[in-house]
Amino acid sequence: MCPGCYRPNVEGYCPNCRKQLFDGARVSSVLPFDQPKADNLSMYQEKTRRLSISGVQLKYSLRLEDGALRLTEKGGQYIIKPVPPTTQITHQDQAPENEHLTMQIASRVFGIQTAANALIYFKDGAPAYITRRFDVKPDGSKYLQEDMAQISGASRQTRGENFKYEGTYEDIGHLIKKHVAAAQPALERFFQLVLFNYIFSNGDAHLKNFSLIQTTMGDYTLTPAYDLMSTVLHTPHESDMALECYEKDMETSFYSKWGYFGQHTFRTLAEKIGIQPVRSSRIITRMLEQRNRVTGLISSSFLSDDVKQAYQHNYFAKLQRMGMTEDMIASAIDPVHPGVYAVTTTPTRLTFIDGSVKDGYFDTTSRSHDLAAENKYSFIELSNATDYRNTRDQALVTIVDGDLLIGIEHPMVG
Ligand SMILES: [Zn+2]
User: Edge-to-edge strand order for the sheet containing 78-82?
Assistant: First the structure.
């Protein structure tokens, strides 16, 4: 299997991965040297207040010379991250493949632009994650690049030890608007990435994990995504997000009721950074669909079976928290004409995240337009259907919250 893209029946890297990573050169998926020997663990462990994967992961620079990858101090073209030499985190031996899988899901399932990446092995068989630096030009010089900590002026000196985690995703959105010439597409890419991080439980997407890079035209754009991994597998007690979405994001009625972020949080973030509701809803829908392709990649990955299961479990749990969008509801009602929300004339069964079930009919009323803006829908429960048909009494209409919906059975079977 190709250690870059899981393509079966290939020795080493497949032609496509060779192209992405090495401009087509035949490079072995086994490095000509052993993994670093950790005889001094404390040397590796940055003293961060917060235990995060970024605090324990080591990085090394590599150069491609005469068809072989070599460790280098200067002029690195690749970065490798071996298994972190620490027992402070769980499943640390799976960290390289976790990052590789998560990056593959981002690019191949969701079309997120990512740094080229693969799994690679040391001579002694230990795995490492390898990624190609996107800031290195073909002539070896570098594109100007700055991360969001640098751009916002956050450093140890200005904001203390925890500076990478001081800020909000909304702040980053405003920095993108200020510095990126084609801001709108960059904002949408950024929003999609924040959502991806939430759904795939990357709780370490801090200020330094978003960067701007100068293009050949001289203006700035968002870099491809990097450092994506399901960190919850290694640091299970971390918070869901490295940064707040926006100030006071936990003070919403949704959060106080459920204790976690949901679709409402992300719609609000999108609105705050200037993404139109119709666009954010489309991005959210795209991120909540494709379940089969995601689970397919998880199962073909090199993770151990128990970690595969945990990865998928966490993913499904996050999907449930996000509820359903109008487009998802429409497709569930009528897969033949997806995207058209319509009244239903045969009974529909709705299942909600708290386990409750409602049977009835989707309806439209004079309030439907306003309700849809909040992802809410008029629904006539079966027990009220006859009375409602006769009286059109609005008190008989149940308002259904799409943010809390986890399943629609239509037509209802049970
Ligand atoms: Zn491949």
Answer: 68-71, 60-65, 78-82, 127-132, 117-121
Neighbouring residues of 352: CB distance < 8 A, sequence distance ≥ 6: 358, 404, 405, 406
CA distance 177 to 191: 12
Which residue spans within 145-285 are E strands per DSSP? 145-147, 211-214, 220-222
Same domain, 237 and 375: no
Closest among 150, 129, 145 to 208, alpha carbons compared: 150
Collapse the DSSP code of 270 into the 3-class scheme (helix H, G, I; strand E, B; otherwise coil) and give the result. helix
The string of pLDDT tens digits covering residues 157-176 is 999 989 999 999 999 999 99
CA of 144 to the centre of ligand 1 (A): 30
- Domain co-membership, 62 together with 134: yes
Distance between Cα 17 and ligand 1 center (Å): 4
pTM of the model: 0.95
Closest CA to 280 of 245, 252, 312: 245
CATH code at position 120: 1.10.1070.20
Identify the domain boundary among 291, 322, 353: 322
Q: How far is CA 166 from each of CA 56, 244, 247, 302, 356, rounded to the nearest angstrom?
A: 19, 9, 11, 34, 39
Ligand 1 center from residue 28 Cα (angstroms)? 13
Between the CA of 74 and the centroid of ligand 1 the distance, in Å, is: 28
Residue 267 DSSP one-character state:
H
The string of pLDDT tens digits covering residues 103-120 is: 999 999 999 999 999 999
CA of 376 to the centre of ligand 1 (A): 43
Last residue of some domain: 276, 306, 322? Answer: 322
Residues 289/328, Cβ–Cβ less than 8 Å: yes
